[in-house]
Specification:
With about 190 residues, the protein is α/β, with parallel strands linked by helices. The protein has one domain: Flavodoxin domain (Rossmann fold), CATH 3.40.50.360. About 40% of the residues lie in helices and about 20% in strands. The chain is built from 8 helices and 8 strands; from the N terminus they run βαβαβααβαββαββαα. Helix 1 links the parallel strand 1 and strand 2. It is globular and about 45 Å long.
Length: about 190
């Protein structure tokens, strides 16, 4: 879909925390986007092996990401980083899927703030030459943050909805000109 002339970009959301991500996708939808939730639990994505041609649902996943104008990535924090299923999904994608694409980040944690998971995802997306939205959503103490599928804290719910709106707002942002650093990113361009 060409989004230069219309404010309804396609979205791809990869994650495991469906309640949180759906709030962001609902906000993107309300802002005029066409959204799609991709639940990694439903995909056949074996551990990445560079010697194998896209097994299982890998080609379908890569095509979905390539077709999106913006991507929302959501993950639980495991051992200070993002989840293994998300890592595997990202391994099946590359510059063709992420270069100059707008990416929003959301992470949840059972304990304190999942800042390191967000930092790791931001680094991976930047290494793939994506444009990562400065606004991100961190949901600490997730078991206390959601009750019966809804956020308990209105401020936290608004932060997640803002992520969805920012994804729509920045879906067509013009990428920065190449820099010395981007030329040092082996495999880029």
């Amino acid at each position: 879909m060409n989004t230069k002339d219309q404010p309804s970009p396609e979205y791809f959301a990869q994650q495991e925390q469906l309640n949180d991500q759906c709030e962001a996708l609902d906000a993107a939808d309300a802002a005029g986007a066409s959204t799609e939730l991709v639940d990694l639990r439903a995909l056949d994505l074996p551990m990445f092996d560079a010697d194998e041609d896209a097994p299982g649902d890998a080609a379908e996943l890569a095509a979905t990401v390539r077709a999106a104008d913006a991507i929302l990535l959501g993950t639980p924090m495991y051992h200070g980083s993002y989840s293994s299923p998300l890592k595997t999904a990202l391994d099946y994608c590359g510059f063709d899927e992420f270069e100059d694409k707008t990416v929003g980040l959301l992470a949840v944690a059972g304990g304190g703030f999942p800042v390191t998971a967000l930092e790791h995802l931001r680094s991976v997306c930047r290494a793939l030459d994506a444009w990562v939205i400065p606004h991100q959503a961190a949901i600490p103490k997730a078991s206390n943050a959601i009750d019966d599928g809804a956020f308990v804290d209105d401020g936290l719910a608004e932060r997640v909805r803002t992520l969805g709106r920012r994804a729509v707002q920045y879906a067509n942002i013009e990428p920065d000109p190449d820099s010395f650093e981007s030329q040092e990113n082996v495999g880029a361009r």
